Amino acid sequence: MTLKNAASKVNKTAEQLNAWEEGSEYPTIKQAEKLAKAYKRPFALFFLPENPSDFQPLQDFRKSDSKELTTGSVFIIREIQQKQNWLSEVMEESGESKLSFIGKYSRQNSPEEVAEDILTTLKISRNISGQGSPVKYWVDQIEAKGIFVSRTSFIHSRLLLDKDELQGFAIADLYAPFVFVNSQDWDAPQLFTLVHELAHLWINETGISNDVVIDSKNSNPIERFCNEVAANVLMPKDLMRLFNSQVYSNSISVYNAAKHLGVSSFAFIVRALNLSLISLGQYQTLKTQVQKDFNEFLIREDEKKQKAKQKEGGPSPYLLRVNKNSRSFTQYVLDAFRGGNIEPTEASTLLNTSINNFKKLELQIYK
User: Fold this and answer.
1) pLDDT in tens, 47-76
2) If you write DSSP's letter for every residue of 29-80 in order, what string do you get?
3) Residue 339 belongs to domain spanning
């Protein structure tokens, strides 16, 4: 934040806030609490003699020419780190079992081997037709195994997350691993990002990603490996080879096949090219058609959004908050609160919700 922007959070001038930072003047307790909330930092941090070492930024696996992380990205990382740190400590102290699949593999293993273990561990069914959103199906399976999944596209209505800046990140932990996915994108890219971040957990590599695409030329070997794992999870060789060659006759057939797997048409044809199922010429022709279809899709989606803005309603703010917190995390905190194991103010902070609205939050957990 700029000095001026930060000062506005407590209705002070930049000069007054600067005096606080230099130590020549001091804020009141209430002003300091407001600043802590604005900075997305624990209030107690202001009283420490020096910066704590456990609040370091996550390792950055993004491309070297990526944009610097802006306020929204920094805030969502801090928020998830705070939830993860609290939960990991509580679970370890409670004697919870460690998750055996965290760090089970490394980049010395083959992407196919890691992909197969992810599918086996999560008990993912290939036949997901009729089960609604593939992303929701995957999230349910993932959280059932003790991994917490956060999905959102904003911090608040005036602070959105840029998917080109931050697509996702993973925090590998033996007790409370977290995966974050920027939901600004549509479902197919979200699913690829989600599985990519799972690969980070399986090789115990905590970090931030923004180049999560099947044909990524990212120079980071960890990102390339995780992309390859995600491709093998969502589009395994054996399954891809079962598709009739007529699938590649036009972009409509490609779209239907890709939708069956929960991936984008573009990811599908790149995978087909990499597996030598289509020629470079076929790929280039299909890519042009797929891009045209996608541009038309974006126009239709934009029209839908404009119509939705003109109508009242939309998703419940509590449903959006549950998705952002992680459904499992929300339930865990509510159970701890009702069991008297956590102070009301801490529960409220962790869930970004006032205690009076906990019931509204809980009603959205299984929707």
Assistant:
1) 888 877 655 568 888 887 788 888 899 899
2) HHHHHHHHHHHT--GGGGGSSS--GGGPPPPB-S-TTPPPP-HHHHHHHHHH
3) 317-363
